[in-house]
Amino acid sequence: MIKINGTYYSSLEEIKNSSTNIELIQFIEQWFNKENFINIKTSGSTGTPKEIKLFKQHMTNSAKATCTFFNLKENDTALLCLPTKYIGGQMMVVRSIVNHLNLIITKPSLQPLKNLTEKIDFAAFTPQQVFHTLKENKKAFCTIKNTIIGGGAINTKLQRDLQNFGNNIYSTYGMTETCSHVALKKINSSKKEYFNALPNITFEVNKNNCLVINAPNISNEKITTNDVVNLITNTSFEWLGRYDNVINSGGIKIYPEEVEEKLQTIISEPFYVTSKKDNELGDKLVLVIEGNLSEEEQEIIIKKSKEVLQRHHIPKEVICFKEFKKTPTEKIIREKF
Asked: Closest Cα partner for 103 from 124, 86, 87?
């Protein structure tokens, strides 16, 4: 059935009698029941969390595509350090079942490699986990053969920190509805990289330049997203930002994610940019920062932003919050004013 931490379990009863965590047991039980689908909640990062059905065959096809891409073979090790109530953790389990991998389990935390002694062939992390791992367990991170990072944006500093690593490190693009990722972008590359489709997946854009995913092996219909992209080919694209985040300020369209990427070089606190109603511009760009910054500190940030941003992308105001609202998966919830 499944190999966990080097031990092969051939029945649910064996797994239940082991020290495996209850959340994982519940998912494995659901995976092997008589239904041809599973129920799963979306993370809520792009809207209100909702429960959806995913067909097990689609999840199996997705797992096979990933294993083929990374050339994962029977008994290779796969690290599970993500919660199994969300798609990222669940798909790591499915890949292990489908491709007969040895699933190594660590408690989901900011330092998932702590005390880990096994050699890992494939692992999935959030950006936050990678950030903390590089500070405390960099040597262990370097030994992982293939790494994917998803569940949130990878900021400029983290990308720079990963550039000289010799292992395979990829950023993922996907969502719960697509059974995890449908495209991968290599991070530690000397050339400009784009998101490239997994096998049997193609892309197009709609009238708003939002990505449309055609993946018959993992979805019965095309999936239209709210992600604005620059389509390079029908199997590759450059991600620009969320359509529902676009700010129209004085007739100029501004993608917050593009602005944030440049501001990451000058701001150390958690932040995001959003819009605020304005009589002259319709909507003006504002910078929202977690913490209590003095007026002088705010002025310094605005001054520095002029060095890295185009004129129309400079925030018109700074708003401070003591603490940001977040989704269950720790993604910042953007507010508009």
From this structure: 124
133 and 263: one domain?
A: no
Percentage above 70 pLDDT, the chain: 98
Find the largest Cα–Cα distance for the chain: 67
Classify residue 306 as exposed, middle or buried by CB count within 10 Å of its CB (0-12, 13-18, 19+): exposed
Q: How far apart are CA 93 and CA 274, in angstroms?
A: 37
Tell me, yes or no, whether 146 and 272 share the same domain. no
Residue 301 parent element (H or E): helix 295-308
3-state SS string over 308-337?
A: HCCHHHCCCEEEEECCCCECCCCCECCCCC
CA distance 59 to 174: 13
Question: What letter does residue 169 receive in the DSSP assignment?
Answer: E
Q: What is the pTM of this model?
A: 0.86
User: Which pLDDT score, from 0 to 100, does residue 328 have?
Assistant: 74
User: Does residue 263 sit in the same domain as residue 130?
Assistant: no
The encoded tokens of residue 316 equal 């018109």
Nearest to 22 by CA among 78, 120, 105: 105
Do 143 and 44 lie in a common domain? yes
Sign of CA dihedral 70, 75, 81, 86: positive
Is 222 within a domain? no
Give me the number of domains the chain comprises. 2
Could you read off the pLDDT of 219-272 as tens digits, one per residue?
999 999 999 999 999 999 999 999 988 999 988 889 999 899 899 889 988 999
Confirm whether 238 is domain-assigned: no
What radius of gyration, in Å, describes the C-alpha atoms of the chain? 21
| Cα–Cα distance, 99 to 91 (Å, whole number) | 12
Domain that residue 124 falls in: 2-199
Q: Select the more confidently predicted residue: 237 or 189.
A: 237
Which position has the token pair 């031990």?
Answer: 7
